[in-house]
Design brief:
Blueprint: H1 2-9, H2 26-43, E1 49-54, H3 57-69, E2 75-80, H4 83-92, E3 97-103, E4 124-128, E5 130-131, E6 136-137, E7 149-153, E8 168-174, E9 185-190, H5 207-212, H6 222-237, H7 240-261, E10 265-266, E11 278-283, H8 290-298, E12 314-317, H9 324-340
Parallel strand pairs: 2-3, 2-4, 4-7, 7-8
Antiparallel strand pairs: 1-9, 5-6, 8-9, 10-11, 11-12
Helix pairs in contact: 2-6, 3-4, 7-9
Bound molecules: pyridoxal-5'-phosphate.
Pyridoxal-5'-phosphate binds near residues 59, 155 and 174.
């Protein structure tokens, strides 16, 4: 990308590399504002919300969310839909009570639980909208009890489709799957939730710090935010998140259709809950060797297809950045492999 090379050498004709600029300089302040504005317009983020660009990944949000929002004597509902949800649950237990409102753990997370047992008093309901490892995704959001609100880990499907921000109290996402490079984490928080928990919070872990300092309390990941801005420009250029969703539907359908048609493969996930971002599939027949199919693919330059160790088989991660021709190449490799058997 020319823009990235320019930014590294001579940012916006300033004669200085973006990598050498102070985060207090005008160009960097403007970059942050521009990136936030662009995200707000792409996702339709209403006035009552704040956008933060933080560090520590989605994994730090597993702790920051309950630390900032859940008091010790209070309860939050969590739905356990996979490894990332489980990690979020583990951290939340350090700060308050956690009620597991639903879980698909006993079925190796092959579906999204629909029947929920929410706590009547719970402050929020936490979901992982796309389960990266298991290939499930919410296509309908759960209804939340009482005055509660949804908190969502959207690390692996943010910007892949339109969302109604007002359904959520807080959304967080590590940038590295659909938004940019690792090193920056997006938090979208409803303003009234900032400072909700009564405990003493370390300054760096307090949302209020980052809200009051515009994500510039300490040195922020400037270059990563620049890359996010470039990605957002690209999403805009193809027509925004609705157009992106349409592309993603077409891509995923092609692959799921081939998995159904191909006599060698099957997808373990409940059809209603299948992810448009991560497609796991396994051999449907004994006597076939995973590694042999993986080599067949890598000979065709199709890589990173090995399934997560907890699922086995294969997983195609087909995030926004994966072009449709990448799917065509995989499908053709699946077909030639079928003919070879
Ligand atoms: C990758 C991923 C994470 C972990 O993100 P880090 O930024 O590495 O902490 C959390 N949740 C989901 C859904 C993910 O896909």
């Amino acid at each position: 990308m020319v823009a990235v090379k320019d930014a590294a050498m001579d940012y916006n004709n300033t004669g200085i590399s973006l990598l050498a600029m102070s985060h207090r300089s005008k160009p960097v302040m403007e970059l942050f504002d521009e990136t936030t504005d662009r995200l707000c317009s792409l996702l339709g983020i209403p006035d009552g919300y704040k956008v933060l660009w933080l560090q520590g990944g989605a994994s730090l949000q597993f702790s920051m969310v309950p630390m900032n929002i859940l008091n010790e004597h209070e309860t939050a509902d969590y739905i356990d839909t996979g490894a990332w949800s489980s990690k979020a649950i583990k951290e939340a237990r350090n700060f308050g009570s956690v009620n597991i409102a639903g879980s698909s753990k006993n079925d190796n997370y092959t579906f999204i639980p629909k029947y929920l047992e929410q706590n009547a008093e719970s402050v929020y309901l936490h979901i992982t909208t796309n389960n990266t490892i298991y290939g499930t995704q919410y296509h309908v959001l759960p209804e939340v009890n009482n005055n509660g609100f949804l908190v969502a880990d959207m690390s692996s499907d943010i910007l892949s489709m339109p969302i109604d921000i007002s359904d959520f109290g807080l959304i967080y996402a590590g940038a590295q799957k659909n938004m940019g490079p690792a090193g920056v984490t997006l938090v979208i928080i409803r303003k009234d939730l900032v400072g909700r928990a009564e405990r003493q919070i370390p300054t760096m872990l307090d949302y209020a710090t980052h809200v009051s300092k515009g994500s510039m309390f300490n040195t922020p990941p400037v270059f990563a935010v620049f890359m996010v801005n470039e990605t957002l420009k690209w999403v805009e250029s193809i027509g925004g998140v609705s157009a992106m969703a349409e592309k993603n539907r077409i891509k995923a359908k092609k692959l799921y259709d081939e998995i159904e048609r191909n006599s060698l493969f099957t997808c373990p996930v409940n059809p209603d809950d299948r992810s448009l971002m991560n497609v796991p599939f396994v051999f449907d027949r004994d006597g076939l060797d995973d590694n042999d199919f993986l080599s067949h693919c890598s000979e065709r330059n199709i890589v990173s297809l090995k399934g997560h160790r907890s699922v086995g088989g294969f997983r195609a991660s087909i995030y926004n950045a994966m072009p449709e021709k990448g799917l065509d190449a995989l499908i053709s490799a699946m077909q030639t492999y079928e003919q070879d058997q």
